């Protein structure tokens, strides 16, 4: 079997190569490059990443190829992100990066020559009734199925997640015992696989700054100033620069460039217990095709270890979720990621509106 393995330079994808070699495979390794050589901001970590990936390739006798998808990334993921932010929404570039770049354009250009593509994502694959499903990882904190919830059936059918059945601590242990150069390297906290880039710096580069008032929702009192509504998202607590908090962003007036906030740990305005999704995407199948009543599910609206219980039903405007408990910071533009009631199978996702 011919396997393509995507390397990021981090410990997770390095352990993927180690595990594949242990299973008797010699994968072809690929590093997807996004930043331009002359672009210091977007190329800040690629040299170190490539060096790490090269060391892993040499250690296991694998061929490493660098695939430059800078132009494709800009025309898809960056265009999507900037467009949504300008609309005052909360996009998720990681979700679209997986769908459009790692398992989209890479597959079209390179991956189609291989039987499987292996990655260091924390997820698993379940086969049931002759169908393949995206399933959650053993490690609930590291589980990344919410970032994979926009991939389609053909994509998930071709994927391998060799570390999905391990805890992160076990992956680190495997790396240390194998003497991998990335064993102690910290996990990336950047956008998708752009590395160390700060999200606000990324947005500032393309939308600049535009000063506006921060207003208390209940009183209309101006509490301070912000540098652009696009730097703030519903439910945000940190980064407002206000005293006497906690303060939470609860609404944005895009036309007037106003950010509304409310104060308190249990302020009612920051919570909700239902939301609707448009353009809902099923990964494998629609399990409720012939169901007229609401169905029991679990779901996430952001990357957290916890799943929330609720019900889903179909309406004229799309799929609607009613949560068993109130949830904080429901932001339009986020993806609502839906799982079965046991939080095992990732069914799909839609954009909250």
β-strand number: 17
Distance between the termini: 43 Å
| Helical content class | 10-25%
CATH top level label of the largest domain:
Alpha Beta
Number of helices: 7
Shape: globular
In terms of DSSP E residues, the strand content is 25-35%
Protein architecture, described:
The chain folds into 3 domains: 3-120 and 162-199, Rossmann fold, CATH 3.40.50; 209-265, Adenine nucleotide alpha hydrolases-like domains (SH3 type barrels, Roll); 271-352, Beta Barrel (Elongation Factor Tu (Ef-tu), domain 3). The chain is of the alpha/beta class and 353 residues long. The model has no long low-confidence stretch (mean pLDDT 92). The chain has 7 helices and 17 strands. A 6-stranded antiparallel β-barrel has the order 12-15-14-13-16-17. Strands 3-2-1-4-7 form a 5-stranded parallel beta sheet. It is 25% helix and 29% strand.
């Amino acid at each position: 079997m011919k396997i393509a393995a995507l390397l990021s330079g981090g410990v997770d994808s390095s352990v993927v190569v180690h595990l594949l070699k242990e299973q008797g495979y010699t994968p072809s390794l690929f590093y997807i490059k996004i930043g331009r050589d002359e672009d210091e901001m977007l190329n800040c970590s690629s040299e170190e990443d490539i060096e790490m990936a090269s060391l892993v390739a040499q250690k296991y006798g694998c061929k490493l190829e660098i695939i430059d998808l800078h132009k494709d990334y800009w025309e898809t993921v960056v265009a999507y992100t900037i467009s949504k932010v300008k609309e005052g929404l909360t996009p998720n570039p990681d979700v679209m990066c997986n769908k459009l770049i790692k398992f989209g354009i890479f597959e079209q250009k390179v991956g189609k020559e291989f039987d499987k593509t292996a990655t260091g994502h924390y997820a698993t694959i379940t086969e049931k009734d002759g169908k393949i499903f995206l399933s959650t990882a053993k490690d609930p904190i590291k589980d990344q199925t919410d970032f994979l919830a926009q991939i389609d059936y053909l994509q998930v059918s071709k994927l391998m997640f060799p570390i999905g059945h391990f805890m992160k601590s076990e992956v680190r242990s495997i790396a240390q015992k194998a003497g991998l150069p990335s064993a102690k390297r910290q996990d990336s906290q950047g956008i998708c696989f752009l590395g160390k880039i700060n999200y606000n710096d990324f947005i500032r580069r393309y939308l600049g700054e535009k000063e506006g008032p921060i207003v208390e929702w209940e009183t209309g009192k101006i509490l301070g100033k912000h540098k652009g509504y696009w730097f703030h998202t519903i439910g945000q607590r940190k980064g407002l620069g206000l005293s006497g908090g906690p303060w939470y962003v609860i609404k944005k007036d895009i036309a007037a460039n106003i950010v509304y906030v409310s104060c308190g740990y249990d302020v009612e305005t920051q919570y909700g217990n239902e939301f609707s999704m448009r353009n809902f995407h099923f990964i494998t199948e629609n399990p409720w095709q012939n169901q007229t009543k609401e169905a029991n599910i679990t779901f996430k609206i952001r990357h957290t270890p916890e799943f929330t219980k609720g019900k889903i039903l179909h309406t004229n405007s799309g799929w609607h979720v009613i949560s068993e408990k109130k949830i904080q910071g429901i932001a339009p533009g986020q993806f609502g990621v839906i799982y079965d009631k046991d939080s095992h199978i990732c069914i799909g996702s839609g954009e909250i509106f």
